[in-house]
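Exercise 7. Predict the structure of biotin synthase from Cristinia sonorae.
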Amino acid sequence: MFRVGSRTVSVYMRAAQSRSLATHATTRAATRHDWTRQEIRAIYDSPLLDLVFRSAAVHREHHDPTKIQLCTLMNIKTGGCTEDCSYCSQSSRYSTPTKASRLLDIEPVLAAARKAKENGSTRFCMGAAWRDLAGRKRGFEKILEMVREVRGMGMEVCTTLGMLSPEQAKQLKLAGLTAYNHNLDTSREFYPEVITTRSYDERLDTISNVRDAGISVCSGGILGLGESDDDRVGLIWEVSRMAEHPESFPVNALVPIKGTPLEDNEPVKYETLLRTIATSRIVLPSTIIRLAAGRQELDEVKQAMCFMAGANAVFTGESMLTTPCSGWDEDKGMMRRWGLEGLESFSQTIDEIDGIDK
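Solution. The predicted structure, encoded as tokens:
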């Protein structure tokens, strides 16, 4: 028997969690960093229900399946970016509805963080539309203060500010930054079709600087850029080879924006989104998989299937940079109906509790 919103769902999920906690240490395979592209492609191409069943089992071995982290993303500096990312309305190269603005003052950002915390978000993310921080000493100092203040609220803090030097990463770490987002976006092969102003290796260098500073890495991709299945597999393969898998892997579905080169792209198929989430969960078992941009286009049942397949974080709130976002009340209602609960700030995964190096 399965009734949406009924006690049956919650009881079933908690029973599955208990069984997983009791047996995971002796039944799961070690996290791998030597996946081949062929192996990942075979997983991606497997029958969809079999794929979701397998990914759900992996998810329950490494995570509490009843927990979803609520994250809120705020644009603290909009537009005027010199990069040519073909999906982004914040590029100064395109004529879009997004207008450039200065870096926000500290207090409005802190007010937004307090509101997010009151509504159940446990990670507050701040994004600035910059290529890098060169020549932005005063702005960077202001951001460091934002990081300190938000961390003082007891929240996890994430920023996405473009490319970072080793020294800038260290300063963010000292200020209390929890995680840094720097997406690879797609495979190495398809990347030049999307962006020409920053190389793939430059992105990897920033990720290395962040990790070397002791900050968690948040790095994923965007589906619907015109890429192939091989490119989606290539993205997962790229992060799987890292010495330490990203702490979180955002899976974004392109939201086409008028004025960008990709404004006429067709929406990514739901099957593709689900396959990417499930494959990522199997290959990156300890990583938090973030259901990110484009989620508002999914109905509740489709989102629940993504959670079943291994997604365990969402962005929620008033907006997500320049694209729509599901609101807190809507998300809390959905989670209640499906027997899900919010993940607390700085919560540990099962692997971390056991002291297993991912």
